[in-house]
Each structure stands twice: as structure tokens, then as C-alpha cells.
Write a structure and sequence with these properties.
heterodimer; A: alpha+beta; Thiol Ester Dehydrase, Chain A; 4 helices; 5 strands; B: alpha+beta; five-stranded antiparallel β-sheet
């Protein structure tokens, strides 16, 4: 069933994320080939850039602290996208949905202790043959309004 | 640390990552994406994917790592864009090949290809930018 165009402009959030050092390390290690978490993880940890997982290395870096890998943003900016894809009003068939395209634009690094709030808006809905596309733009801002990261998310639903 | 003068159009870089059997579960734990098609082989089969598949965002994060190595600083990445062309599955190895296509103002632009061990593209049209102001 086609996604109704009336959902263009539908907004989700804000969703608040309080960034912690452990969450940053878990993301970096999971991507880097290690095992996230604190139990039954591999002794070889960390398998990530030291600026993401090692407090001393972060302090000695140009940033003066641990920083999140840029793609860490995916871990919290996904929230409005996932909520939209599961929104019964919108009616995306999750079983037939795949992630088609993704873009991030970063405006600032993220550090442990940061608070970021993410909102999402459905900015495009279109069909191409038997495929339907849902595009969401997310904005993640600090409590004072400064933009941290933008995301453009494209879901493809097979007909 | 690298500076703008360290980058030349035509520079190349490469990076490889393997998707072990549990990687989709580990990525779900770190990245928060527990869509059943990623962590449950049965759900992946029901979705017509032939089993569970790695989160595209993890493949994208590997592309970001490739760029971070080249740029010499993960905090310099300003933009990354990808199209997910084909799922990555357990036992796949993805090789990322990057090429610098522009150095303009303070911005370094690269294009990245990502292929599995059979040479099939898993990302299409991937491009990234870093800023060295």
C-alpha cells in the first residue's frame, strides 16, 4: 500500500540523548571489530581509535577529551527515523523496508557529557516503479540550539 | 597531525573490515539498531534477505573509519553520503578504496568504493568531505 502523501512534514521528537564515555566506547568498539559491553568481552579491547576509547589519549588529543567517532551520531539520530518507520499511521511495512541511502553532515564533535536533542521530519515521499521511498531529515542540537549533526535518511519499501 | 597541504587530488587510501557472525548483534548493542532483520536469521529469511544482514550504518561507519585514517583525525569529517547497494552478511569482508577528488578552500573531498570479497559493490556513490580550516 502506498504511503499517504499527507504524512509529508510529519515530525518526530525531540529525543534527548545524554552522551556518556561508555556509550561512545561501545559504539567505537562494535564498529572496530571488538565486543561492546563490560561482560564476556574480548581481552583485546579496545579495537578503535584511542581518541574514542582512552581517556588519557583523548586528553592528549587536539580536542582535549575523548570524542565520539562521527558515526556515533547514527546511534541516537536513528530514533525519529525508526519511530516513523514503525508509526502505524504512516504504515511502512517493516519486513519489506531496507535502508536505501544515508547522509550525515557534522557541525561539531561530540564528547562525553554532551546532551543532544534530535528531531526528525518526513521531507519526501515518492514511488519509483514498485519501490516506495520515505525520506527523513534529522537535526540534532545542543540544549542552547547549536546544531551538532544533520542526517538525511532514506527508507525503501519494496512493493 | 595532517594539514591541508598534506592532501593531493589523486591520493588513494584503502581499508578493510570483516563481518564476523556476531557483528550485527555487536553493532546493535553499540548502535542501538535492533531491527530483527539484522539480529535474527529467521526474520531476515522472512524478509527475503536470505538471513540476517549487517546494519547498513555499520558499513557506513567502516567507510567513515577509512576516511578518518586518511584525514588523520576523525573529528575533521564534515559530510559522508552513501547508497546501500547490497547487504553485507556474516563472513563478508568489505574493502573500501578511497580517492581524493578535490582540495578546495579548506575542504578535502573524497570518493569511496566498497566491495565485498566477490567484488560486488555494497555501497554506491559514497563521498565524504573533511574541513581543514
Amino acid at each position: 500500500m502506498a504511503i499517504d502523501l499527507k504524512h509529508l512534514g510529519r515530525r518526530y521528537g525531540p529525543y534527548r540523548c545524554e552522551v556518556g564515555a561508555e556509550r561512545i566506547a561501545d559504539y567505537a568498539v562494535a564498529v572496530g571489530g571488538g565486543i561492546p559491553g563490560r561482560a564476556f568481552t574480548d581481552p583485546g579491547r579496545p579495537k578503535a581509535h584511542p581518541w574514542h576509547v582512552d581517556e588519557a589519549a583523548g586528553r592528549a588529543s587536539p580536542y582535549g577529551s575523548v570524542i565520539a567517532p562521527p558515526m556515533f551520531a547514527a546511534s541516537f539520530t536513528i530514533q525519529p527515523f525508526a519511530v516513523a518507520c514503525m508509526d502505524p499511521e504512516v504504515g511502512v511495512d517493516l519486513v519489506r523496508m531496507v535502508h536505501g541511502e544515508q547522509e550525515f553532515v557534522w557541525h561539531d564533535v561530540i564528547r562525553p557529557g554532551d546532551v543532544v536533542e534530535t528531531t526528525g521530519e518526513i521531507t519526501d515521499l515518492y514511488a519509483r516503479g514498485a519501490l516506495q521511498f520515505l525520506v527523513m531529515r534529522t537535526e540534532s542540537r545542543r540544549p542552547d540550539g547549536r546544531l551538532v549533526v544533520e542526517g538525511i535518511w532514506t527508507a525503501v519499501v519494496r512493493g | 597531525m595532517k594539514t591541508l597541504s598534506d592532501f593531493r587530488v589523486g591520493d588513494t587510501f584503502s581499508h578493510a573490515r570483516s563481518c564476523d557472525r556476531h557483528r550485527p548483534v555487536y553493532y546493535a548493542a553499540g548502535g542501538g539498531d535492533f531491527n530483527p532483520i539484522h539480529i535474527d536469521p529467521e526474520a531476515g529469511r522472512e524478509a527475503g534477505l536470505g538471513g540476517n544482514v549487517l546494519q547498513g550504518l555499520c558499513t557506513m561507519a567502516w567507510a567513515a573509519e577509512a576516511c578518518a585514517h586518511y584525514f588523520g583525525d576523525p573529528g575533521r569529517l564534515r559530510r559522508l553520503r552513501v547508497r546501500f547497494a547490497r547487504p553485507v552478511r556474516a563472513e563478508d569482508t568489505v574493502t573500501f578504496e578511497g580517492r581524493c577528488v578535490a582540495v578546495e578552500g579548506g575542504t578535502v573531498r573524497v570518493q569511496i568504493s566498497a566491495r565485498n570479497q566477490r567484488g560486488e559493490e555494497v555501497l554506491k556513490g559514497a563521498s565524504a568531505e573533511a574541513f581543514f580550516g
